[in-house]
């Protein structure tokens, strides 16, 4: 079974109040040196079988039409997740 990861971020011109809140909290919690924060979304889609080009194309279409709001968000990545190493 494969996993396809879709990452979505707010468009640069869109305000990101959650990112601003996190950026404000980081220094108070001892994490310094970060100039800004933008918060996005990550979806993990499990695929029956292999993640073929057809599967990736379907995931890109779902990302553009269902998982994101194209007015305020950009789909920044659709890729196959690396297989976890079993110990």
Automatic annotation (TrEMBL):
Keywords: ATP-binding, Cytoplasm, Ligase, Nucleotide-binding, Purine biosynthesis
Molecular function GO terms recorded: phosphoribosylformylglycinamidine synthase activity
Cited Pfam families: PurS
Reaction catalyzed: N(2)-formyl-N(1)-(5-phospho-beta-D-ribosyl)glycinamide + L-glutamine + ATP + H2O = 2-formamido-N(1)-(5-O-phospho-beta-D-ribosyl)acetamidine + L-glutamate + ADP + phosphate + H(+)
Location of the protein in the cell: Cytoplasm
Pathway in which this enzyme or protein is active: Purine metabolism; IMP biosynthesis via de novo pathway; 5-amino-1-(5-phospho-D-ribosyl)imidazole from N(2)-formyl-N(1)-(5-phospho-D-ribosyl)glycinamide: step 1/2
Assigned EC number: 6.3.5.3
Assembly with partners or alone: Part of the FGAM synthase complex composed of 1 PurL, 1 PurQ and 2 PurS subunits.
Similarity comment: Belongs to the PurS family.
Biological function: Part of the phosphoribosylformylglycinamidine synthase complex involved in the purines biosynthetic pathway. Catalyzes the ATP-dependent conversion of formylglycinamide ribonucleotide (FGAR) and glutamine to yield formylglycinamidine ribonucleotide (FGAM) and glutamate. The FGAM synthase complex is composed of three subunits. PurQ produces an ammonia molecule by converting glutamine to glutamate. PurL transfers the ammonia molecule to FGAR to form FGAM in an ATP-dependent manner.
Protein name: Phosphoribosylformylglycinamidine synthase subunit PurS
Gene: purS
